[in-house]
Amino acid sequence: MIQRPPLAEDKLAMLIGGRWAAAASGEYFESFDPFTGKAWALVPRAGVADVDAAVEAASQAFRGEWRSMTASARGQIMARFADLVAEEAENLAVLETRDNGKLINEMRMQCKYIPQWFRFFGGLADKIEGRVIPIDKPGVFNYTKLEPLGVVAAITPWNSPLMLATWKLAPALAAGNTVVWKPSEFSSVSALFFGRLFEKAGFPKGVVNIITGFGHEIGDRMVTHPRVAKVAFTGGDATGRRVYQAAAGGLKKVTLELGGKSANIVFADAKLEAAIPGLVSGIFAATGQTCIAGSRALVQRSVYDQVVEKLVAFAKTARIGDPLDPDTQVGPITTLPQRKKVLDYIGIARDEGALQLLGGKVPEDKAIADGWFVEPTMFGNVSQSMRIAQEEVFGPVLSIIPFEDEDEAVAIANDSIYGLAAGLWTQDIGRGIRLPDRLEAGIVWVNMYRATSYLSPFGGYKQSGFGRENGRTAIYEYLQEKSVWIDAGNSIPAPFVQR
Length: 499
Hints:
Aldehyde Dehydrogenase, Chain A, domain 2, oxidoreductase
């Protein structure tokens, strides 16, 4: 086993108003390493009083130095922050892996890539422009300007803690907002170390606040606090609905990035040497714990048996082990409750008559017995009526579904309450252009899968949520438009008639 040195601090602290502090209650909770199954950090257990303090600090910062700072100056601070993240990328990646069990190779990639978001959106900060409108009223000058919303509540999940937080923080800060960020209670350690870099980069006190705790204890207060103007949430669809309903009471702006049951479609003319790894990457990378997981493999019937044979053979070679080992390809499930959920769904699939082709249980290797593992699992001959084909498992479980032609592939792919992503494997250029228009998904990959960029929008259709993260459009999720009218002719108004 790779050595896992303890943290230098016995207890971690939250960032509120530029001050590192314990929870008002003085309570802590344990954060567990999914590979060892043991607690490795003590994290403050925030309560409502801590939420109120963080929102008040963010509100004061919004009305103070941050609001009066030029957009160019904000962008420069974000650029400095990007450089600091780049310097600390390796340390942050190790913290992420220990806290959520994802592969060190992936966490390194993410942490090295995160600076690009802050550089990109920091560069956009002074390019937020309004319009001059040639208004149809003589002697009147009309223009618009885009302004920040105020305090943003950012609530993020445990599967890619820093990356998914960055997708919210970078555009929110570039637009001039302040933030109260609550990472998942299952992966808070990296967030608190990330927070130290905001201080070092020169962000004014209170611009970024980080509180840690349990969603059922503080989530509602974050969403309903009267001084929170916007809620940006990534997580499960059931929780997302509760967030949306709670935010509606205050007529708050909301961005929701929720679940998925994405179809990864293989046509008979596809290059199978590319499609097979693409199917594996879509579901077993990140141990299936990603909203864009290609958890439904749709395979054209004429090559179904061939694809299944190759797919099972390829997946059998996946190395399960310590996520801190660069040679490991499949790590543990992040939480014990999630592992139980995955195993329960595997049992449901068997009961419903799906054909188990691979995996389906906890690994027997004693070297990883303490970890929260589930074997990569595949089910064949799955029908759309099965729960395994309709409900998000969020684990390394692949449903393989046959189809006859394009129309049936599209019908099966769209037969879902979700619409986050889809994959398409074909050498037919016409099909590659034609089918994305028919797929009800916010992201469609053709002859590739599971790629994201700060340059391209990310978000879903249907119950996968609404609003977009990444790309130029993301910054407008954190802005509001103001129209300014000026009488340039010094005319005398008619007081009882609308002008």
